[in-house]
Amino acid sequence: MKLHGTSNRLLAYATTATMELLMLGWVMLGLRLRRIPLRALLGDAPANLRAIVRDFWIAIVFWIGSMVLLGTLGIAWTQVEARIRHQPTTAQAGKPFEPTPEERKVTRTLEQIAPQNGEEIACWLALCALAGFVEEVVFRGYLQSQFIAWSHGGVAVGVVFSAMVFGAAHGYQGVRNMALLAVFGVLFSLLSLYRRSLRSCIFAHSWHDLVAGLALGVLRAHHMV
Q1: What CA–CA distance (Å, rounded) separates 72 from 116?
Q2: Closest among 221, 203, 12 to 124, alpha carbons compared
Q3: How far apart are CA 168 and CA 201, in angstroms?
Q4: Which end of the chain lies in a sparser environment, N or C, as judged by fewer CB atoms within 10 Å?
Q5: The pLDDT value given to residue 158
């Protein structure tokens, strides 16, 4: 479905927010049945301003490092894919890096919902905050804990399987992005284990979605995508 105009983008944001809340409701139901408070998934990070600021900066450093790693893996994926298909890589062809047809399709899909004005940016900010919170609670909080419990304490199993589900949940972005997001999920899990809390993960996740949407909005406004 192509989205044109503010009303359609706002409708898309509202639909996405509803889906996020449904996921959160599913987790809350599971917690309620087991009489486990939501706080148990969030970790025991201090609630003082100094600790919150520290987690925010840790999230920013984590995000920068993650983008470098994922960018490197993305380029490597493209090069390997070109070799498998017996096509010259962009470097061998003497051309600048160009996205694959699948990457162009994903970009077109995402740029349709990129915010274009002040109202949309405000709604996008709220949606990113919601998605960052909900998805970290669901994937790094609930599912990771469930997989660890099912494997009788196997932390690696919890990390890998929750990351695989996280990647699969973004299957609409194509195989390449799905795999990269699974790696991103592993990195988020490692951060949550290191911090013993989801707060840095929530900050990094929300920030990533916010920056990605705003960047696509700017590129679209300048007819660069």
Answers
A1: 30
A2: 12
A3: 19
A4: N
A5: 95
Q: Where do we find the tokens 């890998």? A: 160
Residues 6+ apart with CB under 8 A from 43: 192, 195, 196, 197, 198, 199
> Which residue numbers in the chain have pLDDT < 70?
1-5, 86-107, 109, 223-225
Tokens of 210: 């916010």
And the tokens for 162?
A: 């929750």
Residue 43 three-state SS: strand
Rounded to a whole number, what is the distance in angstroms from the first to the last CA of the chain?
18
User: Strand, coil or helix: what is 225?
Assistant: coil
Q: Which pLDDT score, from 0 to 100, does residue 1 have?
A: 42
Q: What is the pLDDT of residues 95-141, one digit of tens each?
A: 555 656 666 666 676 777 889 899 999 999 999 999 999 999 999 99
Conformational region of residue 36, where left means phi above 0, alpha means psi within -120 to 50, and beta covers everything else: beta
Query: Given CA atoms 5, 10, 11, 17 in this order, what sign does their dihedral have?
Result: positive
